[in-house]
Fold:
Amino acid sequence: MAKYNPEIMYSLAWENAMQRKLNAAVESATECLEMVMGGSVSAWKLLILILSAQQNLHEAEAVADIAIDEAEIDDQLDILRLKAQIQASRGQFKPSVESFRVLLAIIQAKKEVWKSTTCSEVKSLQKLEMDTWLDLASIYTKLEAWHDSNICLDKARSIDFFYPKCWHVRGLQLEGQSLHQEALTAFTFALSINPDYVPSMVSMAGILQNLGGNSLSIARTFLRNALRLEPTSHRAWLDLGLVLKSEGSLVEAADCFQAAYELKELSPIQDFSEQLPIMLH
Structure:
């Protein structure tokens, strides 16, 4: 039955991806796309993510280009964002920034006709715009272009001031400038909005770990909570290993380092859990 049902093949690909059975996931996602003759944006996105988890970024970008050519204009946006993220992961910051700018220009053009757009479509576009500004802010933070990074962050916060990721990115900006106490405040604010926001848990733990002393036990608690929510976070495993090493638990620390290494080698540019386990279109 699976051989004649693209939805089942998609779900199988997603399950294999979540379990990091990536070769099997590629086969299922490819077969799903063949069944629908390339007509599923969800399947294209999943295949791109799987290839990125295999660290095959060149092929992932090539597939993204094919998907963009195949998709209708409204369906290109998420794939274009994936392409820009792949370019950033490859260290190609100039092409990545240009891809993000193209994406923002398309979103801006769509905003002109929002009056004829449904409420759910508006919210989806707003979130995509916000995430795109934050992606750009993160690139400029890596480049230590603080002025440009702040402009992008302000654009995102103007859409939703209480979006946890906005405050997480603000924390990363401050941490990048060695303003650790201010960064802790930003991460804390992100967690006050969403207590289960794993990236800020991990970033807070990283700063607390560097402070040492009594802060180590607090960092350990944050990291164990983060791993309970997101057990495939290689950064959380790495930082937990560093905390345990500082506390003298060398054997357990070694296990954490091993887990961090293995997960980093299988880490996609976006978490697979962000991709729905069902094929929508």
Summary: The chain has three domains: 1-71, 72-161, 178-273.
